[in-house]
Amino acid sequence: QYNMDIYVRPSLSFVRDPPNEVRENSTVLITCSNGVPGSDVTSIALYKDGDNLAIDLGNDSHIVYKRTFTRADTGTYTCVLTSPHYPDFEESSFINVQYGATVNSDPYKEVEVGHSYRLTCEYSSNPFDEDSCTWLGLPSSFVSIGPQTGSIVANVPGHNQGGTLIQTCRCLINRQILSSQTEVKVIEVPNLRIATDLPNQCTKYESYSVTCLAEGIFSNRTDLTLRDTSQSVFKPQEIQEESSTRKSVTLKDVQSESTIITCRGETKVGTKTMTTSDSMHIESCEISLEGLPRRLSRVYPLEDDLVLEAVTRVTGVITDFYSRWKIDEVDRDWLTSDKRSSSSEVISRMTLNHLSVGSHEVSLTVLATGYEILTRKSEVVMIITAGFFDC
Q: From start to end of 174-305, where are the E strands?
């Protein structure tokens, strides 16, 4: 009778993840285990280039080795399973840790229509490659090396309409293609303008209406306000939404002699609160003329020239000023002053000579015009007597 011992043959399982190439600073998992439950196992050990990294004893022994690999971890990794009944089982794998690379850009950027902006892409690689990256779809004239090592920038001119763009930075580093994207939201800011029922911004001390119009792309809430010179807020009517791209607010029966009306709009687009404004200078056009001499009589010696002079004070905003002299109903001189926009004095002069003996009527008429809707006239008459006089 013979006694025969039967032993179950173990099997070594060696698994590495990732199974193929390994990049610097990536995580690697190595598992060594017995693939046949119930078989006799003395120990399982993991070695790197002959140096023991880990060991586990007993039938249930197994090894889980996990860590972040660097270039120094390049080498041959070997799992060894020992059994009391069979020769050692071994399985090896060479892991080559390749150079790593990273590429990063701003994930999101907001710009206004017509405004230029800058894109920045930062990258790192080992070894460092200065010419490995670019911004796809942008002319090379837009792209340049950034101020910091490992960066490129793109100076992009403003876009003429709103919308969302995707700008991509792509790098080729050690035969590896990496990319990073920036979402660019181009914001169209509402355009504001002021409209009024006043002709040429001239009030004549009368009441008037002012409307603030906003046109463009709006958020759900767009605020419009009107302010006068003192920055007190006029109480407007409710904002009128004429369409999805046009809103207005109107002030009625405004009474102000001289003021600056400011229309201010605020709307939230994307993550930004955008503010725009427009202003209008509304000025009184009332004109008054003062300072002309009253009717007078004067004896005029024939042997002398006589210079007549009149000073006219003009109050109010005017565009043109005229003065006209007459002698005995005959025009002698028209004088046109410079255009004026504030209170001023205008001097009108005329030289009389070669008059006949007797009385003469001299008149002066001045005309002041404001924005072509108001004209003020003032007139003076002087009686001049010409003759010969003994000293």
A: 176-187, 191-196, 208-215, 222-227, 240-243, 246-254, 259-269, 272-282, 288-290, 296-301
Q: Are 157 and 81 in contact (CB under 8 A)?
A: no
Answer whether 106's CB lies under 8 Å from 182's CB. Answer: yes
| DSSP-derived 3-state class of residue 285 | coil
Cβ 331 vs Cβ 323: under 8 Å: no
Residue 12's region, left for phi above 0, alpha for psi from -120 to 50, else beta, is beta
Per the CB < 8 A criterion, the answer to whether 316 and 370 are in contact is yes
- Residue in this structure with the two tokens 């995580």, named with its chain if needed: 27
Global pTM reads: 0.42
Q: What is the pLDDT of residues 234-265, one digit of tens each?
A: 555 566 766 666 777 777 766 665 567 777 77
**CA–CA distance, 277 with 266 (Å, rounded to integer):** 9
Q: Which residues contact 161 (CB under 8 A, 6 or more apart)?
A: 113, 186, 188
Is the separation of the CB atoms in 223 and 263 below 8 Å? no
